[in-house]
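Just curious. Invent one:
>
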Amino acid sequence: MWKTLAIHFGRYPSQARVAKLMLEYGLRVKEGRIYCGEIELADVAVGKAASVDRRIVRSAVETIEAVPELKAVYSKLHPAALFNDVAPVMGWGTIEIIPDNAQSLGIVADVTTVVTSAGLAIRQVNVGDPDLTAEPRLYLITERPVPAELIPRLKACRGVKSILIH
C-alpha cells in the first residue's frame, strides 16, 4: 500500500515521512486537520514524531487533501489498540512470529490453526505491513500463556523463520 501512496510524495521526502507515520498510526485527515480517532492532533506534535517542522506537516496534509487517491485513504484511517505489551500484565500469551518472507501466503492461516487446535482462543492478531516495516512480524495475543509444547508445531508452519513466546 505504501508504495502506491508514496508516488505522490516523490519530490518531497519529508512530507512522505509524515504521511508514512500517519499511515502507521492510523492518523486520519479531515478538513485540513489530523485526528487520532476523534482527538485532533497539533501539527507541532505530529512534526516532532516525524522529526520534521510543523510546516512540513501542514504541506503533507495539503498534499493529501489535494490528491483524490490520498484523500480517499487518509480520510478513512483509524488507530487500533495493540495488546502486545499489555498481554503479560493481563495474564495473556503473546506469540511473535518472524517470517522467512512476509509476503508468503498462509502464515497467518497456519499459525492460527495450530493455536486454535490447541484450544487457545485468540484475542488479537497484529501483522506488520512489509511496505511500512523493515522487519514485519506477526503477533498473536492468546487468552492465556502459550504452552511450550506448541513451539515445535508453530515452528513447522510454512513461512515461519523463528518464534518468540512472551
